[in-house]
Amino acid sequence: MPGRGQGRGWRWRGSARQPVRFLEPALLLLLHHGPAHGYTLIEQLGEFDLSDMDPSAIYRVLREMEEKGWVSSSWQEEEAQGPPRRVYRLSAPGDQMLSSWMEGLQETRRVIDHILGRYVQHMEEGKGDYHPTNRGRARRQVVGTP
User: Are 88 and 31 in contact (CB under 8 A)?
Assistant: First the structure.
């Protein structure tokens, strides 16, 4: 997967975490379906649980992806009611990056599935100082009582 940018990563949203770093692959995937306006992309991000992001952050990522050559954009004037709107398109390097992201995400999923599987197994076994059935014993050991 591409390197982590400063200020990106996991952001807390209440008690859940929001994978802000997944904005790039989500946008690339949406553009893989065809050209789209920025506003349309913002609406479609809801499919990936990314709809509550600040639109200015999304447009900033689109500009960064354009600078990297992953997407291109042009002004659409003839069909727009009102001011011209920018239309974003996936480029060949963007298609390659999407493929790279998908490979990285599949590997990440394998690791996450393994960790979750081990956790479920551990909880079913009921062993360990901090397991719910042993918490009292762990507390007694910490304070030094038998």
Answer: yes
Residue 129 pLDDT > 60: yes
Q: Kindly calculate the radius of gyration of the chain based on its CA atoms and give it in whole angstroms.
A: 22
96 touches 1 (CB < 8 A): no
pLDDT digits (tens, 9 = 90+) for 85-109: 899 999 999 999 999 999 999 999 9
Give the global pTM: 0.71
Residue listed under structure tokens 């802000």:
20
Instruction: Tell the CATH topology of 10-143.
Output: Arc Repressor Mutant, subunit A (1.10.10)
Taking residue 26's Cβ as centre, other Cβ atoms within 10 Å add up to: 20
Residue type at position 133? T
